[in-house]
Backbone:
């Protein structure tokens, strides 16, 4: 039976994926520094095994034959998702993948060397090579999938996302934010004039912050019997659904960046921990995509963790762990701080989407051939000035060299971040209707109802639906930026 | 070229072995408790992949053809060791392996249930099944290897070890110890009458013990950039040569058991860290076998860590970390404590070999069919009374149920422990000749010369020689129990 062959393949790929996930998390948290070379070799060999097994030619026949077999509804959906994965994995010839991997890895290495010095001229030739191959990749994927070239790239990260639907949404959001950011900053300035920011005490021992983080993780639903919290240089959520590894890093002079980071990664972890166990070895059993994943992390960080009602409950918990008493207004002044900046990863929720929209626009132009890599510094600077009033023309390390995504050839990924923020806000609107006292629940430290809602609508769905269909089924309407702009207006407006 | 195929296979098996080693260490140290089921499934799937790849029929042809190719000396030795591994892996039919695996796993589970209650009757039928299959395994291996049945089992753990050579050595050692143990106890009693044992203070915080352990590990040669120390329920040395994971467990009422355990595992780790890097992906590049591995751990624990000269240097280090001042005699009274006991893993270096010899004798009788599993409690009790003057007839949990080795079908493994102790003593004798001031060096905390000796004679040899040949090449003579008995007489005699 062909379905059985796919099912067996799923178990083998799950085992290799399990090893790669744990080895990856271990590398960032517990590996001895001298273990890197052998680890990289082992992981690339295992990844090669997984890729060869997942792209074997006979799988096409199994998928075809399984379509004719007497399967239940779940199995049918599983076959469809096997097919989607298989096409995405096999639509590029292997000699192209090898060429692209070499080019990408050389460009990443060069990026690490040239970025600290802002050496755009040294970086550019490698980036040009990556862009050229990204155009070829987009064309090849486009041919196989029957999608526009940029859509074919996005399809890897968020199945069903289309430029035609996203571009106008982003256009409206941009128009809103270009006005809203200065307003929000003006309002913040007036508030601060009346109530100056109370500085953090600067004495937050790591062990106490860790205990606070664990308490908050558990409170918002993280299952500590199926996951853990460690330290790494770059925070991440990794591991496997039965053993989710989240990490943070601590500063002893403040506690909010680590705490908010922990809540963010906890959002990713909740999605992973609550995926349907019985589908774990099928592609169908995975989280839907990057935008939906980001919506879950942002939901916990922004809709829960930066919600004033949450702090009714959280302030005594903070006091208990850190020995410091704050009023709600005092802490919210920190939690809702807005500031124009050059660096995406440091941005607050008001300015962040402008960083993403800038990249979304430039990426489309790059892939379409309307923009060349060599013209990026000027194009970036022009948009940066228009959207955030800042210039990067003399500091390319804060401009087109700031992220690893382009050297890594991950074109089509950036939109997921802001789509995630919009989906999170849209979920919040739906939840406010379905659970009218949700804020009162948060103020009491109760997150069960909101988690039950998300479990039913999002987590248990895994990859059953495309990203747009999942949004619509979960929230009752297609992606609508109005929920996000309303959220920003309520939190940061007059 | 066939050698290249073996070389490539070696890289694939190394990658899978790397994953299994790190996943195994991670499971015991950092895995979330709920992650066990998925981890077990992933590891057994990966182990199956590794086994299938390592036993593929075409490998026999590659080995045959590689033998005809123009290879350098290392490559020729590598092919011979590939052949040895391949024969050991393939000499059992896979349906037999499956039957044995099921029987063994059921017996291990049953052992875990019945041992705490001492329920021999409940355990016996499962053990009988394991013994029956162990006899069949021995006969099958014997046919392929042309060795006696018990030798064919030992061959898996220590290539070249033969009962004909070991049995008389053990016989002499037993005769020596049966007299020596009561003498050593009498001497200890007299010493204690004059100088009563100074009790440990019972206040040893874990973090300080850990720092002490790390300091000692580094001092005796552990490379902390290529390994680490964690906590686990059962101490072990795992991981990979570039990232060796050793573990311990701490009691706050005393520090010596953890410290000696750390030194023991450090001995294993030194062997792994110093294997030839360029052979890492060949069977040839692995440590020689269990007896040689145990000799390296026992060397660090007993020849270094329980050596009076070592404590000249170690006492101020202990004082610095634990804030407690000891005289050398006071600490050595603890470090050299001798006591007759029922449990092998709790035994000191004087009584330990008798536990092993007892099992070695019973195992040979079991495999030869001269003894049945049902008669084990009486046979065990008889030897226990004769060798250590203790009875286990009413407590089978302290007798034939005490170790996991038999339920796991690991017959032929026990001798390695005492062979390791003898090899460690024999190495020490050779080192005393080659480095006459070795004790003075230890007293100054200098371990470089002794490590250089072991690097040249043992570690860098990896699996080039059989166990007996490696012993002879390293120490200048075949296995000779006189070094071990002399060691015991010097340390525990009059």
Residues:
């Amino acid at each position: 039976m062909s379905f059985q062959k796919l099912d067996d393949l799923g178990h083998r790929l799950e085992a290799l994926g399990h090893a790669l996930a744990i080895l990856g998390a271990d590398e960032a948290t517990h590996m001895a520094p001298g273990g890197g070379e052998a680890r990289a070799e082992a992981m690339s060999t295992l990844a090669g095994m997984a890729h060869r097994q997942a792209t074997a030619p006979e799988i096409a026949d199994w998928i075809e034959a399984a379509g004719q077999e007497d399967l239940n509804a779940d199995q049918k959906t599983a076959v469809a998702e096997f097919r989607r994965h298989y096409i995405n994995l096999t639509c590029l010839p292997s000699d192209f993948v090898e060429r692209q991997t070499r080019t990408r890895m050389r460009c990443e290495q060069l990026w690490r060397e040239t970025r600290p010095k802002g050496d755009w001229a040294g970086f550019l030739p490698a980036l040009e090579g990556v862009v050229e191959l990204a155009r070829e990749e987009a064309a090849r994927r486009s041919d196989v999938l029957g999608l526009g070239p940029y859509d074919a790239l996005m399809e890897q990260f968020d199945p069903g996302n289309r430029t035609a639907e996203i571009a106008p949404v982003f256009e409206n959001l941009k128009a809103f934010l270009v006005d809203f950011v200065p307003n929000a900053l003006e309002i913040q300035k007036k508030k601060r004039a009346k109530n100056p920011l109370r500085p953090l005490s600067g004495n937050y021992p790591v062990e106490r912050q860790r205990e606070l983080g664990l308490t908050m993780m558990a409170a918002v639903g993280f299952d500590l019997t199926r996951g853990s919290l460690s330290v790494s240089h770059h925070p991440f959520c990794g591991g496997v659904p039965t053993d989710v590894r989240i990490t943070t890093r601590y500063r002893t002079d403040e506690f909010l960046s680590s705490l908010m980071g922990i809540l963010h990664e906890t959002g990713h972890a909740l999605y992973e921990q609550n995926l349907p166990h019985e589908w774990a070895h099928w592609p169908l059993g995975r989280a839907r995509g990057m935008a939906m994943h980001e919506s879950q992390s942002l939901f916990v960080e922004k809709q829960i963790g930066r919600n004033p009602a949450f702090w009714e409950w959280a302030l005594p918990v903070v006091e208990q762990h850190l020995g410091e008493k704050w009023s709600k207004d005092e802490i919210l002044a920190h939690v809702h701080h807005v500031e124009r900046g050059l660096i995406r990863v440091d941005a607050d929720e008001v300015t962040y989407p402008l960083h993403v929209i800038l990249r979304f626009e430039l990426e489309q132009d790059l892939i379409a051939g309307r923009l060349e890599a060599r013209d990026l510094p000027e194009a970036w600077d022009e948009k940066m000035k228009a959207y955030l009033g800042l210039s990067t023309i003399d500091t390319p390390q804060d401009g087109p060299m700031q992220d690893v995504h382009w050297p890594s050839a991950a074109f089509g990924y950036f939109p997921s971040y802001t789509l995630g923020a919009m989906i999170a806000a849209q979920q919040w609107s739906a939840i406010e209707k379905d659970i009218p006292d949700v804020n009162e629940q948060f103020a009491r430290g109760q997150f069960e109802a909101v988690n039950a809602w998300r479990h039913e609508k999002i987590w248990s769905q895994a990859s059953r639906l495309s990203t747009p269909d999942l949004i619509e089924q979960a929230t009752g309407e297609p992606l609508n930026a109005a929920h996000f702009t309303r959220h920003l207006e309520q939190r940061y407006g007059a």
Observations:
- The radius of gyration of chain B is 23 Å.
- Chain B has a mean pLDDT of 96.
- Chain B touches chain A at residues 11-12, 14-16, 18-19, 22-23, 26, 29-35, 37-39, 41-43, 45-46, 49, 223-228, 230, 240-244, 280 (CB under 8 Å).
- The longest helix of chain B spans residues 163-194.
